[in-house]
Amino acid sequence: MTTQVVIIGGGFGGLEACKALAPAIRNGRLSVTLVDKENFFQFNPLLPGVATGAVETRHIVYPLRRVCQELGIRFVRNKVRTVDGDRRILHLHNELTLPYDRLIIAAGSATNYYGIPGARENAFPFKTLMDAIRLRAQVVEMWELADQATDLATRRRLLTFVIAGGGITGVEVCSELLHMFTSTMARLYPSVPQNLVNVHLVEAGERLLGGLRQEHSDVALAHLRRVGVTVVLHRKVTAVDAANVTLDDGTVIPAHTLVWTTGIRGPSLESPWPWPLGRAGKLTVDTGCRVADGVWAVGDAADCVDETGTPVPAVAQGAMQMGRLAATNLLSELDGHPTTALRYRDLGYFVGLGKHSTVASMMGVPVSGVLAWYLWALVYLVKMVGFRKQVEVATDMIKSIFVDHDTSQIHERRRMLRDVDMEPRL
Ligand SMILES: Cc1cc2nc3c(=O)[nH]c(=O)nc-3n(C[C@H](O)[C@H](O)[C@H](O)COP(=O)(O)OP(=O)(O)OC[C@H]3O[C@@H](n4cnc5c(N)ncnc54)[C@H](O)[C@@H]3O)c2cc1C
Predict the structure, then answer these.
(1) In which domain, by residue range, is 212 found?
(2) Which of 33, 53, 180, 214 has its CA 20 to 30 A from that of 191?
(3) Residue 305 sits in a domain of what CATH number?
């Protein structure tokens, strides 16, 4: 009999599981359905480029229906609302249900605001393509209003940008913004005094890029300070409203733009998952990514340690390795074979510092500067899904060496100067 497998989420982990199950689909052992609330796969590492107009929005996404068609998988574009673990049924929107024999949960993560007053309402999260589009529109809006404002305090507030979180995403967003401001905005807005532009990076830990090589933390810190970013370490954001960001030492930074790149938590449904949750509200899994009988969780959604007891980081390579393992273990269980534990392999990382500079660690070897940027470009191009996307992103990367950032405001967020302190964020 054909086993019905359902995978929730077509991100890095879910797609890798799909690919690993493809041979069993072809020989008729499995029928697989992928359900995702979006109809595209999104390549997150290039989101900072989208937020600053260095990379074209559509170039970092790929239609999930096409991938599924190639692999013989049924695609359902819908949101999983609740799971009935006893009856093995997913409840979706439009009163639809999706029964399963085996389930792989690869639903990613959600932004964690840690209950900080005003953060959910006022901060700009940075997880999705829409977040990147909104942030780009907000940044351009602030420059447009600063161009029209006449008093100094208003202009300074409009041109102050605070980034919470000094991890890879925070450092990359900060670097890309600075690159955009100095290379594009300064020329486009000649009447705006550049000394009014302030970018603050607030990190709660003792160094930037915690968990990565110390030398790369030092390079990133020195680079950001050199280009004029105010880096604040050992500090947390404790409150935010439409016009101010408050830190835990009482400092108030007048700013309309707080970008929230810190903190993730497990994905939530309309009613709780029917299985235990571990750290940060993620699904607890064993070293083989198993949640319960017939259920696996992978990627950012899973609280997983590998066979050495080391927690698997919430990064794309972790999600991909877990996705492959969950699929393999699913097949092993069906065959009555023993399952295997995850042996997480850290392949390294890239951190973009804007202006075609990067710090990287590849298989433990540190690289930095322009050479690292070329490697970054090469690796990301290889990892893009589909030849067309590879060509499009390659074109963007080459273009970014010669031309300015695209500052078109596609997302509607026009405001009047007098509204800027009052209007809630869209
Ligand atoms: C801005 C940014 C930059 C990053 N840069 C890097 C980087 O350079 N290198 C790196 O290794 N990692 C990076 N990461 C982290 C990496 O993207 C994640 O670790 C990875 O995407 C996790 O994969 P996943 O499959 O668990 O989840 P995701 O890739 O997030 O996929 C989850 C999928 O589940 C779907 N989904 C969620 N809930 C539901 C639901 N209820 N019903 C149906 N579908 C649902 C979502 O639509 C999504 O398609 C970055 C992340 C961000 C946000």
Answers:
(1) 119-258+355-419
(2) 53
(3) 3.50.50.60
* Residue 90 and residue 140 in one domain: no
pLDDT per position as a tens digit, 172-225: 999 999 999 998 999 999 999 999 999 999 999 999 999 888 999 999 999 999
Distances (CA, A) of 85 to 9, 98, 101, 197, 294: 17, 12, 11, 53, 10
CA 357, CA 329: separation in Å to the nearest integer?
A: 40
The residue nearest atom 2 of ligand 1, judged by CA position, is 44
Q: Are residues 191 and 295 in the same domain?
A: no
Q: Which atom of ligand 1 is nearest to the CA of 15?
A: 25
Q: Is residue 349 included in any domain, yes or no? A: no
For a ligand 1 pocket test, name from 315, 345, 347 the mutation site with the most ligand atoms within 8 angstroms of its C-beta. 315
pLDDT tens-digit profile of 273-329?
999 999 999 999 999 999 999 999 999 999 999 999 999 999 999 999 999 999 999
Please check whether residue 133 lies inside any domain of the structure. yes
Here the CATH number for the domain that contains residue 371 is: 3.50.50.100
The answer to whether 311 and 211 are in contact (CB under 8 A) is no
Tell me, yes or no, whether 13 and 151 share the same domain. Answer: no
Instruction: Give the type of residue at 76.
Output: V
Residue 107 counted as domain residue:
yes
Give the distance from CA 309 to its chain's centroid: 25
Give domain status of residue 269, yes or no: yes
Counting ligand 1 atoms within 8 A of each CB, the residue from 62, 300, 320 with the most, and so the one to mutate, is 300
pLDDT in tens, 225-241: 999 999 999 999 999 99
CA 16 to ligand 1 centroid distance, Å? 13
